[in-house]
Hints:
two-stranded antiparallel ribbon
Amino acid sequence: MGGRRITVDVYGPHGEGRIASARGLTAQVTKGAKRRPVPPTSGGYRFTDIGNLDLEIELPERAVCPGHTRADIGSCAPSHTNRIEDCPVVSVTLTDEAVRAQRALVEGVKSPKRFSDRLVAVSFEENTAGV
């Protein structure tokens, strides 16, 4: 969870496309992680499997795409829907160079360049199987 390693993309409902995007963000961990005694250079938190991990990420105003407002990010269409596909989709990606190095180590490869540094990608994907 090193600084400036978070990407947030917000996509509008019904295939509208990207309505906000920001890279190089930092998160405040509010729950589900313990401070390491000596933070490594790749980050300062140890994630545990106990409970949820809660992150607070501030999306800057400049991240909102032209023609949209911050209110659009949290607005569903129609407004009183219970269907996920009627609401914006938020995708959060965390990256860390230590992930790349760990993947290379596990694969027994000396150069980690061919591996992704993405730790987690969280998003909603509509289930189109059987449609």
